[in-house]
Each structure stands twice: as C-alpha cells, then as structure tokens.
Specification:
The chain is mainly alpha-helical. Helices cover 59% and strands 0% of the residues. The chain has four helices and no strands.
C-alpha cells in the first residue's frame, strides 16, 4: 500500500474517531444523537486546530486530494443538515486551503 493511501486511511480513521465524539467537541447547540438533524454547529476550536495540524503535515498534492475525497465521502454518509457532517466537511475545507497553499490549484 502506498504511503499516500496509508496516510489517507489514517486521516479517515481520525475523522471517524472525531465523529464519534462530535457531540461533545462542537460549539453552540448540543446535538441529540437520536435526532441528528438538529442545527449543526461548527467543530470546536480544539477540533479545528487538530484538523489544521493534520492538513499542514501533508506536503503532497495527491495526498491532500485523497484526504479531501475521503472527507467528502465521509460527509455524504449523513443527510444534509446532520451535525455529523461538520467534521468531515471541515477536513475537506482545510484540505482545499492546503491545496491552494501548496500551489496545487
């Protein structure tokens, strides 16, 4: 397995772990996991910092793109408006910014 795939898999696993605790790591409204379509809040500052740190560690354009693709796939697992989409979407947004920083786009 290539290093890019291994790293993308590790980041995907981190996203899933972050999703498991997203009810406790978001700012704003408390999310009811029995009714996940409650108002979605942005990830907390701590989660955003962790996402940013992971994105800054990526130095390869295809690796960043693979991370974005995985994050978008993870977000698509949930319906629009579901609070569990927020962390994967934050990864995708940070990845897009990283692509721009690296001059990939």
């Amino acid at each position: 397995m290539s290093t890019t795939r291994v790293r993308a898999a590790a980041i995907a696993a981190a996203v899933l772990v972050a999703l498991a605790g997203c009810g406790s790591e978001t700012e704003g409204e408390v999310h009811n996991l029995d009714n996940p379509t409650t108002t979605a809040a942005a990830p907390s500052v701590a989660v955003q910092a962790r996402i940013q740190e992971e994105m800054l560690s990526l130095m390869d354009c295809p690796e960043v793109q693979a991370t974005i693709d995985q994050a978008l796939d993870n977000a698509e697992r949930y319906p629009a408006g579901d609070s569990r989409r927020q962390i994967p979407l934050a990864y995708a947004e940070a990845g897009q910014a990283r692509l721009e920083d690296l001059g990939c786009v």
